């Protein structure tokens, strides 16, 4: 995570990169102090994070959306990118709808905030129906219904592939049976849903294994920062760093 | 004795985990990248098969919490894309994406003498999640009228001849959340553009479903996926470097599970015996 | 009227988005692109809305001198500093805003999430028990995947754990996840239809689902 390159390159003889690494390292250690127990240093770091990340989102939205997509094309068409010959008047509609969202903060007029929200929600809903059906239902069904006795180009039976395809069909049907609550889980239905639970448990177990992997990777990321970026600033260099091979 | 072993201060576990992650870095031992997963190889082959000059979208749909796993992937993919003289279009539908795109691609581009605006571009972020993905199916420059720094995309040489997904060779979504699902549903399925993903391991079980259907043509899974890709392009980085700590930490956690279970069953048997 | 107009707006927006999918006419396409432009802008405003509740929470805390109100100052000051730098001196790479992002926000967020490594290790030790057939299946799958996902498993003779892990991910896990996915997808389509038809109103802040 290198520091910035740009107009400001140093303060008090220290490069902004070195200062950045130290700030990042101290904040990292501040967060880790939570492992010993909750404490004011952790709390300060946590509250800095809330403020900074909210402002990051707000400032980026201001420049990239409000100014570039709305204000410039509407009021400064010559400054818009690409420049426009005339103001894009139609943008008044989303501009007004967007402003109506803030009526939430005026109790007397807060009902007006329903307009933009209804527009957005309706739009998302309409857009999503064909997409969800195609991607998450039809394509998934298609890929599940595979031959249980497939044959390769030479006419040989692919028994293991067939077994896998069969297992997939059984697994999907049984998992669905487990989530089907309109029939009591007794008899055949009980058996199916029990097999469904086994598939779910294997799935969740695989999920847990991957989650352990991910969490450890996050820790590795921070340790790598401390060892390969922070320690070198105090003259400690570890061999075999990134890019060594 | 087992009771004590089962219920000691958890800070001891914390200290052990910290140690097993730190110590491998202090030694000379480095675990290899391991066997290459087919989905990693497929993504590599896909990029290898593209003709020079083909635009490839590298999508930065993650924030700082996804960086340890996804940033090494981003660096390795950017290196592969740029070294094959493909055009790299960095973009994001997650707000932190553009800053991370700049951080990952700039050093690689500088090393390979690639010019921003000519060989690659950071298109920035557009809100609305599925909205920009959908609109790009009609007009990419309308969705991203400027790059992150405000230059008109229509005037950038890297964007020449690009109108919609038909002009894109491959989209690779690097994500820590459900963004690849949106790219599959709103870009790949309706517009038939080739799509691959690099994901955090937490999300892996959600995306093998789409790998099996062929909706994803490749998948990099977590830090291991990054290490595998670094091996394929022949440039080791933070993915490879992390594999030894990752290996030891997994072994220790499995050991925790085993000890925990032995303790649990021993205590339970004794309790039953005494009843 | 206060409810009818937004319901009508939602209906029209939803039906238009649905219908355009089936009618690729030039005029429809042009309106479709405009509608997406508009929605992106309105979506931008909606993001800023979240700030309202953040300010309200912290200002209230300070005003009533609630426990830990000093930390609320920290949040508000951090916000103000980052926001002013971002608005006045822009957000481009190389700016102070970018420096604060890379050296304050990135380490804080990444470290906060990395705490989970410690908690998941502790949870594995204390709660991950083979109490039943189901729990044993879960535990076995987890252990195999944990081993199969790291290169050290290649050292185990006669057992290709890497391939077994890929098989677990590609067959039984896909089956279970697909079963769940069908349920989620059907639920999503039903909810989308209810929104378009005005049956689902919870997002409008008035008695949903009547």
Question: Care to describe what's here?
Answer:
The complex is a heterotrimer of chains A (245), B (275) and C (210). Chain A has a domain at 146-237. Helices cover 64% and strands 2% of the residues of chain A. Chain A contains six helices and two strands. Chain A has helices spanning 16-32, 40-75, 92-100, 114-144, 159-179, 187-230; strands at 10-11, 14-15. In chain A, 42% of the residues are buried. Chain B has 275 residues and is α/β, with parallel strands linked by helices. Chain B has a six-stranded parallel sheet, sandwiched between helices. Chain C is mainly alpha-helical. Among the domains of chain C are: 92-127; 129-189, no CATH class. Helices cover 75% and strands 0% of the residues of chain C. Chain C has helices at residues 4-20, 26-63, 69-88, 96-127, 133-148, 161-170, 172-196. In chain C, α3 packs across α4 (96-127). The longest helix of chain C has 38 residues, at 26-63. Mean pLDDT of chain C is 92; it is low at 206-210. Chains in contact: A-B, A-C, B-C.
Which labels suit this protein?
heterotrimer; B: 275 residues; alpha/beta; Rossmann fold; 6-stranded parallel sheet; 11 helices; 6 strands; 12% strand; elongated; C: 210 residues; mainly alpha; 0% strand; disordered C terminus
């Amino acid at each position: 995570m290198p520091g910035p390159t740009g107009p400001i390159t140093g303060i008090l003889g220290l490069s902004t990169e070195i200062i950045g690494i130290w700030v990042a390292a101290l904040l990292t250690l501040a967060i880790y102090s939570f492992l010993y127990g909750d404490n004011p240093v952790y709390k300060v770091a946590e509250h800095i994070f809330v403020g900074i990340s909210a402002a990051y989102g707000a400032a980026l939205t201001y420049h990239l959306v409000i100014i570039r997509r709305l204000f410039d094309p509407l009021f400064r068409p010559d400054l818009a990118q690409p420049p426009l010959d005339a103001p894009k008047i139609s943008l008044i509609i989303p501009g007004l709808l967007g402003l109506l969202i803030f009526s939430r903060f005026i109790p007397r007029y807060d009902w007006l905030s329903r307009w933009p929200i209804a527009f957005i929600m309706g739009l998302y809903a309409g857009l999503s129906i064909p997409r969800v059906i195609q991607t998450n239902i039809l394509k998934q069904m298609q890929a599940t219904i595979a031959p249980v006795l497939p044959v390769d180009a030479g006419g040989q039976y692919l028994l293991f592939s067939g077994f896998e395809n069969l297992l997939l069909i059984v697994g999907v049907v049984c998992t669905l049976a487990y989530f089907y609550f309109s029939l009591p889980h007794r008899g055949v239905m009980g058996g199916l849903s029990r097999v469904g639970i086994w598939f779910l448990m294997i799935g969740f177990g695989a999920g847990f294994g991957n989650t352990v992997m991910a969490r450890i990777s996050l820790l590795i990321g921070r340790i790598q920062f401390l060892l390969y970026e922070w320690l070198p600033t105090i003259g400690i260099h570890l061999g075999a760093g990134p890019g060594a091979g | 004795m087992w009771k004590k072993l089962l219920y000691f201060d958890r800070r001891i576990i914390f200290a052990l985990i910290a140690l097993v992650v730190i110590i491998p870095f202090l030694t000379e031992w480095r675990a290899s990248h391991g066997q290459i997963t087919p989905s990693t190889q497929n993504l590599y082959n896909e990029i290898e098969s593209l003709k020079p000059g083909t635009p490839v979208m590298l999508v930065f749909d993650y924030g700082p919490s996804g960086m340890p796993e996804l940033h090494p992937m981003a660096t390795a993919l950017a290196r592969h894309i740029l070294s094959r003289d493909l055009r790299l279009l960095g973009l994001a539908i997650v707000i932190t994406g553009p800053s991370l795109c700049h951080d990952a691609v700039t050093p690689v581009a500088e090393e390979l003498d690639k010019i921003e605006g000519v060989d690659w571009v950071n298109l920035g972020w557009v809100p609305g999640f599925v909205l920009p993905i959908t609109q790009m199916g009609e007009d990419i420059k309308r969705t991203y009228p400027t790059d992150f720094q405000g230059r008109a995309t229509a005037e950038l040489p890297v964007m020449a001849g690009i109108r919609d997904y038909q002009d894109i060779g491959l989209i690779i979504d690097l994500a820590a959340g459900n963004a690849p699902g949106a790219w599959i549903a709103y870009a790949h399925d309706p517009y038939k553009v080739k799509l691959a993903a690099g994901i955090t391991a937490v999300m892996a079980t959600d995306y093998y479903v789409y790998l099996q259907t062929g909706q994803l043509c490749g998948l990099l899974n977590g830090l291991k996926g990054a290490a595998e890709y670094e091996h394929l392009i022949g440039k080791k980085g933070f993915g490879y470097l992390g594999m030894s700590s990752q290996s030891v930490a997994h072994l220790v956690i499995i050991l925790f599970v085993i000890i925990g279970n032995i303790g649990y069953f021993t205590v339970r048997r004794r309790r039953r015996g005494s009843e | 009227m206060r409810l009818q107009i937004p319901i009508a707006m939602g209906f029209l927006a939803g039906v238009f988005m649905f219908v355009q999918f089936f009618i690729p006419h030039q005029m429809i396409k042009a309106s479709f692109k405009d509608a997406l432009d508009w929605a992106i802008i309105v979506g931008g405003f909606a993001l800023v809305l979240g700030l309202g509740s953040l300010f309200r929470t912290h200002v209230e805390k300070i005003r009533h001198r609630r426990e830990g109100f000093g930390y609320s100052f920290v949040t508000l000051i951090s916000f103000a500093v980052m926001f002013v730098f971002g608005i006045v001196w822009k957000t481009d790479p190389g700016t102070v805003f970018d420096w604060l992002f890379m050296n304050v926000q990135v380490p804080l967020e990444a470290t906060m999430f990395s705490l989970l490594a410690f908690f998941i290790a502790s949870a594995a030790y204390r709660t991950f028990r083979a109490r039943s057939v189901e729990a044993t299946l879960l535990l076995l799958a987890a252990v195999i995947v944990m081993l199969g996902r790291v290169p050290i498993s290649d050292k185990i003779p006669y057992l290709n754990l890497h391939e077994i892990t890929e098989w677990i991910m590609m067959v039984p896990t896909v089956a279970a996840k697909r079963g769940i996915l069908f349920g989620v997808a059907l639920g999503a389509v039903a909810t989308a239809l209810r929104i378009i038809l005005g049956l689902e109103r919870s997002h409008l802040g008035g008695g949903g689902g009547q």
